[in-house]
Design goal:
CATH superfamily of the largest domain: MutM-like, N-terminal
Strand content: 15-25%
Number of domains: 2
Largest sheet: 5 strands, antiparallel
Bound molecules: zinc ion
Distance between the termini: 29 Å
Order of helices and strands: HEEEEEEEEEHHHHEE
Strand order of the largest sheet: 2-1-7-8-6
Radius of gyration: 20 Å
Helix content: 10-25%
Shape: elongated
Length: about 270
């Protein structure tokens, strides 16, 4: 599943082809994604995309009348292709630009989304209740500490809660807690302030590093057979059950927390 770094890399990848360019037409081949693609999406035809932003795992293509909102869901992929490129299975949506490029959305499982946010209308409900962006000054360990008091959920669930901070997916929660030396099973309200201050910094570093690593794949972005937004990562603990801990060589343990696979070293994480 694409996580925040992959979505940010997608944003960086498509921006040079779409920013300050005019949308010629939008071709919807499959309207039923996670939600129906609204007819209003066609209001963007003929308009310039003046900026491409990301909020949580949503991409927003801004025009003067509103924003096209894209979400990759479980299996969604964005490609930049020449607009006459032959279709593949699951190519559900084309945003055709008048510069000959086309943003093509492929999504085998159809949990992705394409929505329309009109200028001047109340924000869509998907944006209400979202916590701060992890890579901005609105987020830090102090916020984690303050919001965690009286919260007895596991700290791993706590940092993966979009209402607390957006975009800390399962892999990044595992990796961040390992680097911070915090047991993922520990109750959120039992984690000390100094540990949250460090965890806040580490979450920023882990996500920023993943984006930098993903940036190396950008050269492939305009190729239809490339795999934009998915990249090999250096994982210290995630997926390493029974392999030696990179710090102490004890075998990595695994447990299910919040229905998600969780990996940790019971020697290094307290
Ligand atoms: Zn260890």
């Amino acid at each position: 599943m694409p996580e925040l770094p992959e979505v940010e890399v997608s944003r960086l990848g498509i921006t040079p082809y779409l920013e300050h360019q005019r949308i010629e037409k939008i071709i919807v081949r499959q309207r039923q994604l996670r939600w129906l693609i609204p007819q209003d999406i066609h209001l963007a035809e003929g308009l310039l995309i003046h900026s491409i932003r990301r909020r949580a795992k949503y991409l927003l293509l801004d025009t003067e009348l509103g924003s096209i909102i894209l979400h990759l869901g479980m299996s969604g992929r964005l490609h930049i292709v020449p607009s006459d490129t032959e279709l593949k299975k699951h190519d559900h949506l084309d945003i055709v630009m008048d510069n000959g490029h086309c943003l093509r959305f492929n999504d085998a499982r159809r949990f992705g989304a394409c929505l329309w946010q009109a200028v001047g209308q109340a924000p869509l409900s998907i944006f209400s209740a979202l916590g701060p962006e992890p890579l901005t000054d609105d987020f830090d360990g102090n916020l984690l500490y303050q919001r965690s008091r009286n919260k007895s959920v596991a700290v791993k669930n706590f940092i993966m809660d979009n209402k607390i901070v957006v975009g800390v997916g399962n892999i990044y929660a595992n990796e961040s807690l390992f680097l911070a030396g915090i047991d993922p099973r520990k109750s959120a309200d039992k984690v000390k302030k100094k540990d949250y201050l460090q965890l806040g910094l580490i979450i920023k570093q882990v996500l920023a590093h993943a984006i930098t690593q993903g940036g190396t794949t950008l050269k492939d972005f305009a190729q239809a057979d490339g795999k934009p937004g998915y990249f090999a990562q250096e994982l210290r603990v995630y997926g390493r059950l029974n392999q030696p801990c990179v710090n102490c060589t004890k075998p990595i343990q695994s447990v299910i927390i919040g229905q998600r696979n969780t990996f940790y070293c019971d020697n290094c994480q307290k």
